[in-house]
Amino acid sequence: MSGTSPNIQNSAQAMPEHAYRGYLYIACSAVLWGSSASLGRAAFTGQLFPGSDIARIDPLILSQARTTFSCIAVLAALLLVRGPRRLSVPVADLGRLVLLGLAGVAASNYFYYLAIQRTNVATAIIIQYTAPVWVLLYMVARKLERATMPKMVAVALAIFGIALVIGLFGGRKLHFDSIGVGAALVAAFSFSYYNIFAHSLLERYDRWTVLLFTTMSAAVFWLFINSPWKIAAEHYTAAALGFLFVFAILSVLLPFVFYFAGLQHLRPTKAIVASCLEPVFSILIAAAALHESVNPLQAVGMAMVLGAILVVQRPAAGDKVQPVIEPVD
User: Fold this and answer.
1) What 3-state class would DSSP assign to 88?
2) How far are the Cα atoms of 221, 236, 255, 286 from residue 42, in angstroms, in the given order?
3) Separation between Cα atoms, residue 32 and residue 34, nearest integer Å
4) Is the Cβ–Cβ distance between 11 and 33 less than 8 Å?
5) Mean pLDDT of all residues belonging to the chain
6) Residue ranges covered by each domain of the chain
7) Per-residue b/e over 130-146, b at no fewer than 16 CB within 10 Å?
8) Global confidence as pTM
9) Which residues is 324 bridged to in the sheet?
10) Where are the beta strands (DSSP E) in 71-162?
C-alpha cells in the first residue's frame, strides 16, 4: 500500500474504484441474504426437504445457530491462519466490538423476528428499512456528513421503493401491534448502529477480526436466551444440523464478510442505502426459484431502489471528499 497512512487513503483518484468495489460487495451481501431468505422459506415450509425435521426448526434456534456456527467457522479459520496471539485487541476496542455484536448483530436479528411474529413481514421490513433515515440524521447531527439533496432524495427513493417491492401499495396491509412496531423500530436502530460503528472499527481492524468478535458476543448472548440443553432436547437429526450450518454460512458469515468489506469502501449513508437491495433480491430470487410472481408495482419499486443507489453515490456541490478505508487484511 502506498501513501503516508497505512489504513486511510484520501485520494480523489482512488475514490471511483473504491466506491465501485464497495457497492459490489454490498450487492453480493444482498444477493446472499436474499438467497438465504428463499432457502429458509423453502426449507421451513417443507418444499426443499419434504418430511424432514428441518421444517420444525424454531426461529429462535435458527437465529442462534446462524451466529454460533458463523462464530465457530471464523474462529477456527483465524486460529489456523493467524494463531491465538494475533487475535487479541485492546480492552477499550474489545468493549466496542462486543457492544457491536450485541446492540448491532444480535439485537437487529432478534427484534426483526419479534416484529415479524407480532405484526407481519411487510410491517417489519418497511420499519426496519427506515434505517437510512436514522443513519443520515446521525451523520448530519455529528457533522460527519452533509444533508445534501442527493442523499435526501436517495433515502426517500430507497424507502418508497421498498414499500412498492414488498407490495405495500398492492393490497398488502401493515399490522400495527405496539410491541411489534416497537421491535421493528429497535431493529432499525440496531441496523443503523452497526452500519455507523462498524465503519469506525474497520478503520483499525480487518473485517475478519470485527466479524469474529461481533458473532462471538452475539453467540454468547443467545446462550443466555436459549441454553444448549433446550437445543439438545429438540433431538435434531444430523441432516437438520447440517442444514443449519450451511444456512449460517450463507445467511450470516458470507453476507457479513461482504457487507463489512463494503463498509471499508463506502460511507455509512451510502452503504445503508445500497443495503436496500436485499428485499429486491429476495423478491427476484423467490420469483426465479419458487415461481412467485413480480407485479408491475414491484418492478417500479426495484427501479427506485436502484435509482437511489445511483443518486446517493453522486457527490454534491460543496461536499467534502470523504476518506475511504483500505482493507488492512
Assistant:
1) coil
2) 28, 18, 20, 9
3) 5
4) no
5) 82
6) 11-325
7) bbbbbbbebbbeeeebe
8) 0.82
9) 9
10) none
